[in-house]
Amino acid sequence: MKSGYKMLMELEEVNEAVVKVSFGDDLKSTWNAIWRLQVPNRIKLLLWRARSDSLPTKVNLAKRKLLIENTCTQCNQGPEDRLHALWACLLLSTIWQVLFPDLVSISSSSGSFLNVIQLAQQNKMRFDLFTWMVSLI
Ligand SMILES: [Zn+2]
């Protein structure tokens, strides 16, 4: 059985390799900031899955023919993709507005959840709190 330390070191090596291959400089610094956060690894992995669009959103499930309808059942306002599911759904807007009013303001024209993550990290907002909140949604 692997020790927790060894598993973390392996995850770190995978992270560094993936970062080098996958990201431009902006996203690389954002991902490195995520990796350095003092939050549980499950939160980092959730953000990673959001980055790679591998979350079981209704849009992704419909692409895989597991659902016919991809509309968000919480608000019925549009397809439930990662941006909608984690940030833009009307039912979440009050939470985000209360906790991160500046982020809501500067991200209003964001077309991607990755952009929202970058804005949260680059603008020195409570990035750890932001990632915790994303994990609770
Ligand atoms: Zn919704």
Report on this structure.
This is Ribonuclease h protein. It holds the Pfam family zf-RVT. InterPro entries: RVT-Znf. Residues 15-96 form the Reverse transcriptase zinc-binding domain. This protein has 137 residues and is mainly alpha-helical. The termini are far apart. α1 (4-22) packs antiparallel against α2 and α3 packs across α9 (127-136). The chain has one domain (4-136). It is globular and about 40 Å long. It has helices spanning 4-22, 25-36, 41-51, 58-63, 82-88, 90-99, 101-106, 113-122, 127-136. Zinc ion binds at residues 72, 74-75, 77, 84, 89-91.
Keywords:
137 residues, mainly alpha, 9 helices, binds zinc ion, RVT-Znf, Ribonuclease h protein
